[in-house]
Amino acid sequence: MANIMAQFQWLTCPRKDLSTGWLYCDPGSLYMPETYVLPESLPQWFPWKEMSIYPVQWHALALGLFASIIAPFGGFFASGFKRAFNIKDFGDSIPGHGGMTDRMDCQMVMAVFAYIYHQSFVVQQSLSIEMILDQILMNLSFEEQRSLYTRLGQYLLERQFGES
């Protein structure tokens, strides 16, 4: 499914405004197929020697595995939480069923995992000069900053005169 969806710009191009015009963008690296050569140890009757897979498919696999193996235990976690605090149920929106939040335990665990996974593995980490400078000013002593300044100056001089 992910390989089919990755072919449509409406699903892969980021929307930066609320306009309804056509989307044109270069697909990101997540939506460009990568070819993987299969190991020689596969039997000879296996029809493929290589496979083309979108990186987004690996992410879909990771999320799907978590959703099917780990997330269902969100109900057990919520049950333990309720027992620890002597709470009968979280609500009365569905009589006899412990409330709507009891029905959402799995989704809450999945939402937390999806956010952490997205921030850790999917989003390209970009650093700006301001972010780097803030880190330098907050974490380095004055002597370390001076040493960095000197070494960076030497590096830039070597690079400038090394290329010409």
From TrEMBL:
GO molecular function: phosphatidate cytidylyltransferase activity
Metabolic or biological pathway, per its Swiss-Prot or TrEMBL entry: Lipid metabolism; Phospholipid metabolism; CDP-diacylglycerol biosynthesis; CDP-diacylglycerol from sn-glycerol 3-phosphate: step 3/3
Enzyme kind, highest EC tier: transferase
Transmembrane segment boundaries: 56-78
EC number, UniProt record: 2.7.7.41
Top-level taxon in the UniProt lineage: Eukaryota
Lipid bilayer topology: Multi-pass membrane protein
Main subcellular localisation: membrane
Name the UniProt record assigns to this protein: Phosphatidate cytidylyltransferase
PANTHER family, sorted: PHOSPHATIDATE CYTIDYLYLTRANSFERASE, PHOSPHATIDATE CYTIDYLYLTRANSFERASE, PHOTORECEPTOR-SPECIFIC
